[in-house]
Amino acid sequence: MSKYDLIEELNKDGYLFTSDVVNAGISKTWLSHYVRDKGYERVAQGVYVSPETWPDELFILNRAYSSIIFSGETALYLHMLVDREYSEITASVPSDFSGQRLRDKGVIVHRERKTIYGLGKTQVETNYGHFVNVYDMERCICDMVKNRKEYDVQTYQTALREFFRKDNADYSKLLEYADALNIKQDIKKYLEVMI
What does the pLDDT average to over 88-116? Predict the structure, then answer.
């Protein structure tokens, strides 16, 4: 089997990742030739997309920066808690992560202390069918309540209403996160009103 055939097998829905190619024992030189010959576009460090593929921005960011967790309005949209798409991508990162490269790409970056970074991390499927790191619904609601001034009224009310309508909403988890984020009293008020 040729190097090109091996690289072709590593193609995942039109995406090629340098790390996958190198881990398969193929040099970056061969990858470079393949990418040039097949017309792939470099969309992020170590991430290439075929000409036929519509790029999934969230998936690309998550592959290029594995420590990011989508949060804020981006996460609310991925969980279908709001009806309109986010205007800017929001991601949470550990406090020791610079985030400047992400900011340069227009991503809103929230640096979080180690005690809360990753609290509620899960994976959700994007509109393009790829799984990305995101905070779960309960963490999204807690973050939104904690930072309510950053949200417009319509987004805030819609997300709360949709969350409390969901059959899979976990109220005990919501209270656990609220306690960790020091907003337990605020969340209790919403629980009393909404359920």
Answer: 94
Q: What is the DSSP string of 3-59?
A: HHHHHHHH-BTTEEEHHHHHHTT--HHHHHHHHHHHT-EEEETTEEE-TTPPP-HHH
* pLDDT tens digits, 109-121: 999 999 999 999 9
Taking phi first (over 0 means left), then psi (-120 to 50 degrees means alpha), and beta for anything else, what does residue 128 get? alpha
For the stretch 160-185, pLDDT in tens is 999 999 999 999 999 999 999 999 99
Closest by CA to 109, choosing from 92, 134, 87, is 92
Percent helix / strand / coil, the chain, rounded to 5: 45, 15, 35
Mean pLDDT, residues 129-135: 96
Strand-pairing partners, residue 105, are none
Which pLDDT does position 45 carry in this prediction? 87
Angle, CA of 58, 145 and 57, to the nearest 5°? 5
CA distance 36 to 57: 22
CA max distance for the chain: 64
Place of tokens 């209270």: 175
Report the 10 Å Cβ neighbour count for 93. Answer: 20
Distances (CA, A) of 106 to 41, 44, 72, 110: 20, 14, 15, 13
